[in-house]
Design brief:
single chain, 206 residues, alpha/beta, two-stranded antiparallel ribbon, 21% strand
Length: 206
C-alpha cells in the first residue's frame, strides 16, 4: 500500500493518552503458571484497553502444555499482556503479564528487563509451579509479592501455612485476591508498591 504525504497515522485514543501531569512511570510484571489469572488481572485493573496476545490452543499443545485445573481454557498468552493504571496524578504503573506455558518462558527475561517489582500469582491446586517462577525472579533480583488467586474449586489454606509451603521469608507479603475484581487487583499492586518503598527506605538507611 502506498501512503500519500497527506495520509496520517492515527495516534492513541484520547482515553489512552498519558495524563499531562504524569511525572514517573514504573514497570511491573505479573507472573505465574498457566491459567493462574495473569491476563484476567491485567484486564480487570487496567484503565486502558489492555493489549493481549492470546491465541487459540490447538492439538499441538496436547502432551506439551500442562493445563491441569484449566481444562476448559481455550486460549493462552503467547507473548505478553499489557495494561496501565494511574496510582496518582503523577505516578503511572505499566503492567506486563507474562506467558504461563513453560515453552514460552524464554520470553520472560525480556519482560523482566527494567521491572521494578513483580506479582507472583498462585493457584493452590498447583503450588509446585510457583517455585520455578519465584526462582527466576530471585535470579534476576526482582522483588516480588505473592497473591493467591481465589479459584472456586481450589483448596483454601491459612496464609501462614502457604508461607511455609512456599518457603517465603517473613518480609515478603502474601495475600489472597480475586483477580476478576478491579479493587482486589488494585490492592495487590498497592501492596507491591508499599513493599518496594520499604525496600528502598531500608536501602537508604544502610
Amino acid at each position: 500500500m502506498d501512503f500519500k504525504s497527506s495520509d496520517t497515522i492515527p495516534g492513541p485514543r484520547t482515553e489512552d493518552r498519558l495524563p499531562q501531569s504524569t511525572e514517573a512511570a514504573v514497570k511491573l510484571v505479573i507472573v505465574g503458571g498457566f491459567g493462574v489469572g495473569k491476563t484476567t488481572m491485567v484486564g480487570s485493573v487496567s484503565e486502558i484497553k489492555p493489549l493481549t496476545t492470546e491465541e487459540t490452543m490447538t492439538q499441538a499443545g496436547i502432551g506439551v502444555d500442562d493445563n491441569f485445573g484449566s481444562a476448559t481454557k481455550t486460549a493462552t498468552t503467547v507473548a505478553m499482556d499489557f495494561g496501565r493504571i494511574s496510582i496518582t496524578d503523577q505516578l503511572v504503573l505499566y503492567l506486563f503479564g507474562t506467558p504461563g506455558q513453560e515453552r514460552f518462558w524464554f520470553l520472560w527475561n525480556g519482560l523482566f528487563e527494567g521491572a521494578l517489582g513483580a506479582v507472583v500469582l498462585v493457584d493452590t491446586r498447583r503450588l509446585e509451579v510457583s517455585f520455578d517462577v519465584m526462582g527466576r525472579l530471585e535470579e534476576r533480583g526482582v522483588p516480588f509479592v505473592v497473591a493467591v488467586n481465589a479459584f472456586p474449586d481450589a483448596p483454601h489454606y491459612p496464609v501462614e501455612e502457604l508461607r511455609t509451603a512456599l518457603d517465603l521469608s517473613e518480609e515478603i507479603p502474601i495475600m489472597e485476591c480475586d483477580v476478576r475484581r478491579r479493587a482486589s487487583s488494585r490492592d495487590v499492586l498497592m501492596t507491591l508498591m508499599r513493599f518496594l518503598h520499604s525496600l528502598a527506605m531500608a536501602g537508604a538507611l544502610r
